[in-house]
Amino acid sequence: MSRWDGLDEFVAVVESGSFARAAEALHVSSSHVSRQVAALEERLQARLLYRTTRRVSLTEAGQTFFARCQRLVEERDEAFLTMGDLQNAPAGLLRMTAAVAYGERFIVPLVNDFMADHPQLRVDIELTNRTLDMVHEGFDLAIRLGRLNESSLVATRLSPRAMYLCAAPSYLERYGRPHTLSELGQHNCLIGTSDVWLFQQGEREHQFRPSGNWRCNSGQAVLDATLRGFGLSQLPDYYVVDLLQKGSLVSLLEANQPPNTAVWAVYPQRRYALPKVRLLIEALKSGLALRPEYRCERAD
Asked: For 13-61, what is each residue's pLDDT tens digit?
């Protein structure tokens, strides 16, 4: 009996959430998966999974063992891929995540273009505004916006991301234009996903907590409310650059604009060795550079 026996089945059950889905992913029977996991528990003299008719969950021992096993299985599979014919072509399953609105508008179309060139690739894209645990949840790649938190993950910058404080001319005609950061508190602010707006004040970063009578966790909805003259908003360049050039919106407090943040591709370090991850990142970087929303005058 190999020490690998049961590991693939155990990892598949945890990642898929059921014995039936694990069996489907591994192209074996559910009874085979059950036997292999049971034999693994017997060999370890430890219970790894709680089983009910509705769900499967990890025991405390199972949580510890799964964290190690998942890395072992991934690194084994990647070692074979690196040495095989797949080294030169994207193939297999690529799991990635991105924010909902940005993913729909920018990322998914570029991924679809990439897949059209590499039909042997399979993708599983989860669009969510939650920051997912990439390693624990088995993602190869995440697209993240703005500033990154410290982590063990590697990040590649895909494009700049400038933030603009703006308002519709109709709002400014009624309520006037703020000329300093201290005047922002006198204005109705349209609040999106962030409770804090960032600005540059000399050499320091200034944080402003907006308040107003309107809030929505959609950038497109914030933009619509801004165009209707409901208040001030702070939005990324790809929402507003064209509208600023047309005069539909007015850029405010330009001397206090925060330094560019960015759009990032984030991934576990070892994943970059895989062609499916490395080449997709390059395709995303090239594709975003061609988008008209990013062709603004701000320095990169």
From this structure: 988 888 988 898 888 999 999 999 999 999 889 999 998 767 888 998 9
CATH class of the 163-256 domain in this structure: alpha beta
Question: Is the distance from CB of 48 to CB of 62 less than 8 angstroms?
Answer: yes
User: What is the chain's alpha carbon radius of gyration, rounded to the nearest angstrom?
Assistant: 24
Residue with tokens 């576990």: 268
Residues 6+ apart with CB under 8 A from 184: 178, 208, 210, 232
pTM given for the model:
0.68
Per CATH, is 7-83 categorized as 1.10.10.10?
A: yes
Buried b (16+ CB within 10 A) or exposed e, 15-48: bbebbebbbebbeeeeeebbebbeebbeeeeeeb
CATH fold group of domain 87-161+261-294? D-Maltodextrin-Binding Protein; domain 2 (3.40.190)
Backbone angle region of 36, left / alpha / beta, with phi > 0 → left and psi within -120 to 50 → alpha: alpha
Q: Do domains 7-83 and 163-256 have the same CATH topology?
A: no
Element at 144 (helix H, strand E): strand 141-145
